[in-house]
Design brief:
Blueprint lengths: L2 E7 L14 E7 L35 H4 L2 H10 L4 H22 L2 H15 L27 H18 L4 H15 L30 H10 L4 H8 L18 H8 L1 H4 L10 H6 L3 H12 L1 H17 L8
C-alpha cells in the first residue's frame, strides 16, 4: 500500500545548522483507500416497449411504395406544401392500385398474357419525340381496326372486364389500366414485379398511323424506329425479350424468362426445316445479325436477373412515355 511520510521538527531545533535523522520524528499517514462498491443482484434494465407484429398481407397483395403511386416531383411538392395530405393520398392510391391488380388477376391467365402485353406495346409504341404525339394514352381503343393491331380486339376484352368492376370504386383511365395489366401479365408468367405509377389521362382520338415498327425491319430500321420514341439499342433489345411469351417459338409460351435470347444465339432457323424455320419474326432474327444488339443479347442470355432488371426499367419508361397526367 502506498504511504505518505511527513517529517516533524521540534521548534527549538528549527534553524539549527546540525540536524540529524534522530532529531526528526517520522509519522506514516496511510493514503486514503479508494471507495469500493458491491452490487447485489443484477442491474435493472429498462424494458423495451413491445413491438406490434407487422400486418399480415392479403393473398397476392403487393405493398405499394409511394414512388409506385406518385412521381418524385409530386411527392416533393406535396410534402413541402400540404404535408398533412400525403399519407391520405398515398393510402387512397395504394388501395386503388391494389383493386386494379386484384380485378385484373381474376380475368388474366398465363395463356392470355402475351396478348395483353402486346396491347401495351401497341398503345405506347406510337410515341414520337419530334412531334410529341402518341404514347401511353389509351388511344389503342380507337386503333383496333388497323392492320398492325390485328387480334387485339380479343386482348382488350380482358382489361375491359376488370374495368367494369374497378370503375364502381374508382374511375380508372384505359391508359392506367392497360399499363397495370401489362405489368401483371409479366408477373403472372414468372417475370419481374413492375411498379406502375397511376394518373394517366386517356386520349379521345387515335394516334397518327405508321408509327409502330414493322415486322420486316432490319436491325438498322429497328434502331431508328426506337430512337424516334426515345429508346436506346439496349432498351430495344430488352423490350424485345417480351417475345419470349406467346406463339413465336421462343421457349415456353407462358413463361417469362430469357429463353428468347438463348434461342436467338442458336439461330435454329438456319439449320433446321419445318417448325424451327418459322421461329420468330424477321425483325427478331435481324437483331442477332447486328453487333451492338448481339452484345446485349449475349448478356441477357447469360444473366436472366440482368434481363429482368433492364426489362423492368424499360417497361416503366415505355408506359410513362408520352403520357399526359392528371393533376393531384
Amino acid at each position: 500500500m502506498t504511504t505518505n511520510s511527513t517529517r516533524w521538527i521540534h521548534p527549538s531545533l528549527r534553524g539549527s545548522p546540525v540536524l540529524s535523522s534522530s532529531s526528526c520524528l517520522h509519522f506514516k499517514i496511510p493514503a486514503p483507500k479508494p471507495p469500493t462498491f458491491q452490487f447485489v443482484g443484477q442491474p435493472i434494465k429498462a424494458k423495451a416497449p413491445a413491438t406490434p407484429p407487422p400486418p399480415i398481407p392479403r393473398a397476392n397483395e403487393r405493398v405499394s411504395r409511394p414512388s409506385d403511386l406518385f412521381g418524385r416531383r409530386e411527392l416533393f411538392f406535396l410534402s413541402t406544401t400540404v404535408p398533412f395530405l400525403v399519407p391520405s393520398l398515398i393510402a387512397v392510391a395504394a388501395d386503388e392500385i391494389f383493386q386494379m391488380r386484384e380485378e385484373i388477376g381474376k380475368v388474366l391467365s398465363k395463356g392470355k398474357a402475351a396478348g395483353v402485353l402486346r396491347l401495351v406495346f401497341h398503345d405506347a409504341g406510337t410515341f414520337d419525340i419530334y412531334d410529341k404525339t402518341g404514347g401511353m394514352n389509351g388511344s389503342i381503343l380507337h386503333e383496333l381496326d388497323r392492320p398492325e393491331n390485328k387480334g387485339l380486339k380479343k386482348s382488350v376484352k380482358i382489361p375491359e372486364k376488370a374495368k367494369s368492376q374497378i370503375d364502381i370504386l374508382y374511375p380508372v383511365s384505359w391508359a392506367d389500366l392497360i399499363a397495370v395489366a401489362g405489368a401483371e401479365a409479366v408477373s403472372v408468367c414468372g417475370g419481374p414485379k413492375i411498379p406502375v405509377q397511376l394518373g394517366r389521362i386517356d386520349s379521345m382520338l387515335a394516334d397518327p398511323e405508321q408509327k409502330l415498327p414493322e415486322e420486316s425491319l432490319d436491325a438498322a430500321g429497328l434502331k431508328q424506329c426506337f430512337q424516334r420514341t426515345g429508346f436506346s439499342t439496349q432498351e430495344l433489345v430488352a423490350l424485345s425479350g417480351a417475345h419470349t411469351l406467346g406463339s413465336k417459338g421462343f421457349g415456353n409460351p407462358t413463361i417469362f424468362d430469357n429463353s428468347y435470347f438463348k434461342i436467338l444465339l442458336e439461330k435454329p432457323w438456319l439449320s433446321s426445316a419445318g417448325m424451327s424455320a418459322m421461329i420468330g419474326l424477321p425483325s427478331d432474327r435481324a437483331l442477332v445479325e447486328d453487333d451492338e444488339c448481339t452484345t446485349w443479347i449475349s448478356k441477357y442470355a447469360n444473366d436472366q436477373n440482368l434481363f429482368f432488371e433492364d426489362f423492368k426499367d424499360a417497361y416503366i419508361k415505355l408506359v410513362n412515355t408520352g403520357a399526359r397526367w392528371r393533376s393531384i
